[in-house]
């Protein structure tokens, strides 16, 4: 495959960035998108040019490190992570634009790398769950209804990649935060801090500069783990009822 890549280059957080155009040839449809960028970087390095900075780690769709805005879509044209996107999703001769996540709360560090530590601070502000120390309790001592266990598990599959924020016109982090609130709020172990957790996380989310949800739904459409939009309803319900949960 022969491709034209228009890639955002920015030397550092305070530099002014711009789109740069690169031509690349000989790309296999079986390559992943990141392998294609690796090839580009090998060519740039061979020419003595600065390689394009981008994040990745597991390259298996499980860690949440990768994330690019590809031709205007978070993670590109498939519902998957950038590392699991393959070049067969594109056509020979395509022009592909590659940008970092765009959100005030995710400042650009360099090129396609953004600082997503705001997500860590939201998680941190949610705190811990109360659990007794000692050996693991007998599994049947805390029964959890199957629908609640399934919903908690589904919400817990969020990998914190930030695609929801990048896709949202408000740059809202509420799908991410709703997933965290839901996976703990559905389980008995998450009840003790349920009210304080949601209040603290929402305050941190808003303080970090994320926007509010206006029910557009781009976040859920872009989410590689298909976190459903209704976790935001649970977040809002928990916030409204947080006084009841506080002890
Ligand atoms: S690099 Fe881990 S999810 Fe993509």
Write the layout of secondary structure elements.
Blueprint (H helix, E strand, L loop, with lengths): L2 E7 L8 E7 L8 H14 L22 E2 L2 E2 L20 E5 L8 E3 L2 E2 L2 H10 L19 H11 L6 H5 L6 H12 L8 H14 L10 H5 L7 H11 L1 H4 L2
Parallel strand pairs: 1-5
Antiparallel strand pairs: 1-2, 3-4, 3-5, 6-7
Helix pairs in contact: 2-6, 3-5, 5-6, 5-8
The structure holds FE2/S2 (inorganic) cluster (FES).
The site of FE2/S2 (inorganic) cluster has 12 residues, from loops.
* CATH topology value of the largest domain: Fumarate Reductase Iron-sulfur Protein, Chain B, domain 2
CATH class of the largest domain: Mainly Alpha
Which residues sit in consecutive blocks of at least 5 with pLDDT less than 50? none
Which CATH architecture of the largest domain is right? Orthogonal Bundle
Description of the molecule:
- By secondary structure, the protein is an alpha+beta fold.
- It has 2 domains: 3-110, Ubiquitin-like (UB roll) (Roll), CATH 3.10.20.30; 116-129 and 143-246, Alpha-helical ferredoxin (Fumarate Reductase Iron-sulfur Protein, Chain B, domain 2, Orthogonal Bundle).
- Helix content is 35%, strand content 11%.
- It has 9 helices and 7 strands.
- It has a 5-stranded mixed beta sheet with strand order 2-1-5-3-4. The protein has a two-stranded antiparallel ribbon with strand order 6-7.
- A hairpin with an 8-residue loop joins strand 1 and strand 2 (18-24).
- It is elongated, with a radius of gyration of 20 Å.
- The model has no long low-confidence stretch (mean pLDDT 95).
